[in-house]
UniProtKB/TrEMBL annotation:
This protein's record includes keyword Transferase: no
InterPro entries: YdcZ (IPR006750)
PANTHER family referenced in this protein's UniProt entry, alphabetically: INNER MEMBRANE PROTEIN YDCZ
TM annotation in the entry: 34-56, 68-89, 95-113, 125-145
Originating organism: Noviherbaspirillum cavernae
Gene Ontology, cellular component aspect: plasma membrane
Protein name: DMT family transporter
């Protein structure tokens, strides 16, 4: 693995609980988890647009968009579900519990996606080492959530 990508993945993971805390504060300030998620996505959209314009990103053609599979369009829906759910759940569970549960769910879904090579991922079969690693993560999750 390239060090840069590993560091970037770690940084992305590290900012998720920060995002949850910031969005939760936004929710408490305005009173609505859905409106807080909408504001969060609006700010993110403006930032991504500014970056795309500054980087002179190439925009897709209509033909490129038409060739995409239908499931390629649900990324925003999934992101909105996660952000809205995190805003709603974080105050009840706390940052550590929320992150543990979401990471455990991400790992198991990732194992399935890799095993079957779904939605554009290369196929990487489930093996004993991956199962043991997943079980250790579950054990850690149970310890953090329960205690």
């Amino acid at each position: 693995m390239k060090t840069w990508y590993v560091m970037l993945a770690i940084a992305a993971g590290a900012v998720l609980p920060i995002q949850v805390g910031v969005n939760s504060t936004l929710r408490h300030g305005i009173g609505s988890p859905i409106v807080a998620a909408l504001i969060s996505f609006g700010v993110g959209t403006v930032c991504l647009l500014a970056y795309a314009l500054a980087a002179r990103a190439e925009w897709p053609t209509a033909q490129m968009l038409a060739k995409l599979p239908m499931w390629a369009w649900i990324g925003g829906v999934v992101g909105a579900f996660y952000v809205a759910t995190a805003i709603l759940v974080a105050p009840k569970l706390g940052a550590a519990n929320l992150v543990c549960l979401t990471i455990a769910a991400q790992l198991f879904m990732s194992l399935l996606l890799d095993h079957y090579g779904l939605i554009g991922f290369a196929q990487h079969g489930i093996n004993v080492a991956r199962i043991v690693g997943a079980l250790l993560l579950i054990a850690g999750t149970v310890m953090i959530v329960k205690y």
